[in-house]
Structure formats: C-alpha cells, structure tokens
C-alpha cells in the first residue's frame, strides 16, 4: 500500500486526468523523436551511399574519355604512314581526323624530343615535351598511362597527356594531349544537390578539372588532409573540422591513377525544420492534452459531486430522484441510487414487519420450548436424561428455524424439510424411502412437521426399524378425498418394517405426545398410531390449506 500511495497519492480527479494526458502525450512525443532520429540516420546513410555512387558515376565518365583516347592512340600507332616513317603524311592525316575534336597528337623520340605536334604546322621547330618524368615512367612500364596535370610548353595552358609507348624508331611514343578546361566539360554537377562541387584529381593530388561552387583551378593541390583517406576504391569522407556540415564522396578510376571526388553541404535545413516542427508540435500536443483533460476533469468533477449529493441525501433516509448529467455511466449510477433509495425504503418497511413477525414467532418458540421442557421434566428421572432430551429436541427445532431463516421465514419446500431432518441420521439414510409430490410449507408447518419427523426418526433409530441394518422405513404423502370433507386433504404415512418386534408402550412419553396430540392439534387433523409387531405405522391426515403456503 505504501508503494501504491507513493505513485498514486491523494489528489483530485483533475490532477490525475492531467497527469494521464501528460503520461500519454510524452511517450508519443518520445516515440516520434525516436522515429525522427531513425529517419535522420536513414537519410544520412542514404546520402552517403548516393554520394559514393555519384562519385563512381563521374569516374565512369572520365574512364570512358581516357579509354577513347587510349583507343585512338592504338589506332594511330598502327597507321601505315607512321610505320613507313612518313611523319608529314601522318601529321596531315591525324590533324584532319582530330580537327573537330579538342585532342592533339604528339610524336616523340626516346629523349622526349617532339617530332611532330598537331597544335603546330609540320616542320615547325619544336623542343622537348614539358613532362619528361611522365614519359620516362610510361617507357619503363610499357603500358598506356595518363599523366598528372601540368603546364604545357606549346599551349601555355594546363594540360594532361595519355601516352602510348612504342618500340619503333624514330617515334618512341605517341601522346594525346588535351587542355584541362576541355576535360572540365565532362565534369558536371547535374543530378547533384545545389551547392555541390565535383573534381578530377591526378596521382599527385592536383586538380585536373573542377566544377561547382568551389570550382578549383587546374593544378591546384587538393586538401592534403583529405587525400590520405582515399584508401578504398570508393567511399565517403566526413570530418566536421575539415569539412564542417559537408560530405565528400570519392572513387578511383579503374585502370588509371586518377580519382573523382564530389562534395557539398548536408541538407540540414529539412532536418532542422522537422525538428522544429516536432518540438513545436509536441509542446502543442501536450498543451492540448492538458487542456482537454482539464475540461473533462471539470465535467467529471461536477458529475461526481452531483452523485455524491444524491448519496448523502440517500444516507439521510430520503428517496432521491436521479440527476441528469452528460456522462452516460453517471446517469446509470444516478438511476441505480434512486432505485436503491426506493428499495431501501421498502426494505426498511419490510424489516419493521419482519421484526414484528420475529417477536411474534419468538414468543411462539419460547412457548413451545417451555411446554416441551415441562413435559420432559415430568417424564425424566435424572438431570442428565432431561438435558439430553431437551438438547435433542432443540436440535431438531433448530434445523427447522435455520431452514426458515435461510428463506426469510417465507416457507420451505416439504422435500427439503424432510431431507434436513433426516440428515441427523446419516447412517440410516439409505434405509428410508421417501415419495410424494413436493410443495412449499408454511413457516408454522415447517416447525411442527419437523418436530414430528425428528421424533419419529429418533424413536426408529433407538427402538424401531432404523436400529437394525435390515430395517426399512417408508415415508410418503399424497392427496386424499373424503365424501364428507370437500376440502383437499393430505395424508402423511410413516411405516416401519423389518425391525425388532414392536409392542405398545405402557406409558405415553413426550415423543408420543408430539407425534399424536401436538401433530393433530398443529394441523387441525387426525393422527393414527399403530404399534404393529412388524413395525410402527403413523398416519397424519390434515387439510392441505394448513400446511401449504399460498
């Protein structure tokens, strides 16, 4: 109880309803917050995945460009003009083929000296290429490679090369070169969120081409704090110190030493807006719930007070009329209280009547008990015998009174009266045969017939058929008609057989008085007692009206 009182102290119904509203609203608010956190986490996971996919998509575009350049170099390397050493014809053919393109072809010898350059007319004096280390690396590896971005000597702009090594002389390598700004046309932010940028980075970490709000110039070193994180083939990078509120995705270009990166701000606006809506909505929900609970509590409090007033008036003994409220259940309680006040008034009237009847019946019982004790006192020769006889008769009388009390002195069925008195002799119950149509006895008949049955059974157990195992008793009642008596009559028969030989007693005791004189007087009938040698026969004939309850 102390624990219950701790969690549920005494308080008004309004306080409990408001607490219930808050207790309901807060878990909902917490659950929505949890869902929002989960949604935010899912959004971030989706954004990271999409960022890595966008970087991979850009890497495929650049890979396609580099593969096209490599294919062009392979085709040019096998041209007849180059195989025959006719560089002028090779220059003319290549320049014509690439005229509508932004690509240029350079042929160099093993030392890096330019033999031709389609940026210039054939025969124009040319020097060494600007990126000798890249050429040496390609010659050493023997495969096609893309160079880092560098400033070209012929063009004067930032360019990059794709180089094909050859073992033939004098042309040791073919190079396709392109301005970095022309490659930048392939680097697009289309499909990305506003504020996002994209770039292509070479092996040394310099920007080859870039687009977007950041728009890094070619040759610009990319943030060296980020480059070491590019360890996987693709992924994302997020660091609030380096890129506050931003996300970066990267992807390696398969088969090449370049990488593509995209980066931009995380969409915080929608998340903050959702959080703001959640907080405002949650506070509003709690306020509405509290106000609603207060309004309901006020209505319920008024209803309870009206019902309490009815109960107070009912306690004072008044018959109250039901009050009309807005709560259906309260109306039902009001009607029940009104009915209860009316029933209580009737019960009090009935109780006064019962008390009057009880006084009357108590006097009758006392009179009967006094007569019984006077009779027993005349016929017993010791106090012990007197006490036993009185106790036995009072016990039988008590059974009848107990039956009547259980039925509020309204009468008891004849079959039940017989059963309750014969229960005192359980060892002989199977020796008794009972037949007759059941009906309800009057209260007086319950007592008087019960006394007679108790005496008959007691006498049989002591001296008659029930004193031996083979003895049998038949107790029956039935309607009879007599020509000189138009009223309905009942005949009760107690017949014993199979017991010890019976002889008529020399003197009449209290038991004989009860089954003969008292029974005949109580039921205004006749009693026949026959002490037959084969067993006692007791027959009571009385008017049915003296026994049956109306």
SSE map:
Layout: H1 2-7, H2 13-77, H3 80-83, H4 87-97, E1 103-108, E2 114-117, H5 132-141, E3 145-146, E4 150-151, E5 158-165, E6 173-179, H6 180-183, E7 197-201, E8 207-211, E9 234-237, E10 246-252, E11 259-265, H7 268-315, H8 328-379, H9 383-406, E12 412-413, H10 414-422, E13 432-435, E14 440-441, H11 443-462, E15 472-482, E16 485-497, H12 510-522, E17 526-532, E18 535-543
Parallel strand pairs: 13-15
Antiparallel strand pairs: 1-2, 1-6, 3-5, 4-5, 5-6, 7-8, 7-11, 9-10, 10-11, 12-14, 15-16, 16-18, 17-18
Helix pairs in contact: 2-7, 7-8, 8-9, 9-11, 10-11, 11-12
Structural description of this entry:
With 550 residues, the protein is α+β, with helices and mostly antiparallel strands. It has 2 domains: 11-265, Beta-Lactamase, CATH 3.30.450.20; 397-544, Heat Shock Protein 90 (2-Layer Sandwich). It starts with a helix and ends in a 7-residue tail after the last strand. Helix content is 48%, strand content 19%. A hairpin with a 6-residue loop joins strand 10 and strand 11 (259-265). The strands form 4 sheets. Strands 1, 2, 3, 4, 5 and 6 form a 6-stranded antiparallel beta sheet that branches. Strands 8-7-11-10-9 form a 5-stranded antiparallel beta sheet.
